[in-house]
């Protein structure tokens, strides 16, 4: 039993080591963007569901947080401030599935083809969701959802979603970011983003390590219908989101488990649909119910699931036609040891940078903000 536990922890630790620098880089880039983009400006840009507005919602989501819980809370905040429901949902999808750090980690653990697939499948899901919402959402349902959203039911990320630490003033963008106030704002956003997502990353790594160490390949081969290529391709995008829902792992934390599933034999499209289903895990479905009510939650769940499955099929077909589907079984799942390669040097460099930002966060009084993570969105913290 002890050896089993140590094997799982070793694999989880190695996957963490492999993706460490990329996580820090991704959160730093997101912090820089959030330091210069005001939330009020975002909500004003997203007041309808025209294609141009949804394109803006996608772009703003890409530049936002990668934490699923924070993205869901922020989408609700934007909806309450005047954004259309569809634009808020598009923002939510983009902010969890089209962010830079996710693309880098996918390339490191699974290969660049999966990064490309994520950025091809993301727009497909967004277009499908927007089209289906036009059919299934009625004005009364949206009004009822807005009434429910205004009731002030706090979730685990309400305080985080309410915080707007963007900097304003004279001077160029870079001069504002390089100023003492700008550096402080970046450090605060950086640490708060980590505080929002660290739980899911750790849980995801532990689950992936345990699954990689304990679940035999024969189980995955039977589950994913290996040996039946056509049925496997059909079954993969259907079962992928179901596994995601059952795993309770969202955001970037599901990438290590995706690597395990890919080595286990799930189809290429199945991996894509699994990755996108981080917005359908059971805790987030419970948050949807609190935010928007049962009726809207059922609409969101059904539409998201159907569109994720459809996107998985579309990506599978497109990549098969382009001969871009890599050979399965070669994802990084922690089997290799630590060596003095580019990963080690990048980790040292970015961990040093993260330590400097954390020190700035502490010295500038940022620790008092951490208790606001689950606070009331209508009472944002003092900065």
From TrEMBL:
Signal peptide: none annotated. InterPro entries: DUF318, UPF0718_permease. Pfam families: ArsP_1. The keyword Nucleotide-binding does not apply. The chain crosses the membrane at residues 91-114, 120-137, 197-215, 266-288, 300-322, 342-362. Its main location: membrane. It is found in: Cell membrane. One of its GO terms (cellular component) is plasma membrane. Keywords: Cell membrane, Membrane, Transmembrane, Transmembrane helix. It is a multi-pass membrane protein. Belongs to the UPF0718 family. This is Permease. It comes from Branchiibius hedensis.
């Amino acid at each position: 039993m002890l050896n089993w536990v140590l094997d799982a922890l070793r694999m989880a630790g190695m996957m963490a080591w492999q993706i460490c620098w990329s996580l820090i880089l991704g959160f730093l880039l997101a912090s820089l963007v959030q330091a210069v983009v005001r939330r009020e400006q975002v909500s004003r840009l997203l007041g309808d569901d025209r294609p141009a507005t949804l394109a803006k919602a996608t772009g703003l989501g890409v530049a936002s947080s990668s934490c699923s819980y924070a993205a869901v809370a922020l989408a609700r905040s934007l909806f309450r401030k005047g954004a259309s429901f569809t634009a808020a949902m598009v923002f939510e999808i983009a902010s969890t599935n089209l962010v830079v750090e996710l693309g880098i980690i996918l390339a490191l653990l699974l290969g660049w083809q999966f990064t490309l697939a994520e950025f091809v499948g993301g727009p497909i899901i967004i277009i499908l969701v927007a089209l289906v919402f036009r059919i299934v959402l009625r004005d009364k349902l949206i009004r009822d959802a807005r009434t429910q959203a205004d009731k002030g039911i706090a979730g685990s990320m309400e305080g985080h979603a309410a915080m707007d630490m963007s900097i304003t003033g004279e001077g160029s963008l870079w001069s504002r970011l390089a100023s003492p106030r700008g550096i402080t704002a970046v450090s605060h956003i950086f640490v708060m983003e980590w505080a929002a997502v660290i739980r899911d990353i750790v849980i995801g790594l532990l689950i992936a390590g345990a699954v990689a160490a304990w679940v035999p390949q024969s189980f995955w081969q039977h589950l994913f219908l290996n040996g039946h290529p056509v049925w496997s391709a059909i079954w993969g995008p259907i079962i992928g989101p179901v596994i995601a829902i059952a795993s309770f792992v969202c955001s970037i934390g599901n990438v290590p488990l995706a690597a395990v599933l890919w080595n286990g034999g799930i189809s290429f499209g199945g991996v894509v649909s699994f990755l996108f289903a981080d917005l359908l895990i059971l805790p987030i479905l419970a948050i949807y119910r609190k935010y928007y009510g049962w009726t809207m939650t059922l609409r969101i769940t059904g539409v998201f699931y159907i569109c994720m499955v459809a996107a998985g099929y579309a990506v599978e077909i497109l990549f098969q036609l382009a001969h871009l589907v890599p050979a399965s079984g070669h994802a990084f799942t922690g089997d290799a040891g630590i060596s003095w390669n580019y990963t080690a040097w990048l980790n040292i460099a970015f961990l040093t940078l993260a330590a400097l930002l954390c020190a700035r966060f502490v010295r500038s009084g940022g620790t008092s903000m951490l208790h606001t993570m689950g606070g009331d969105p209508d009472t944002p913290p003092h900065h």
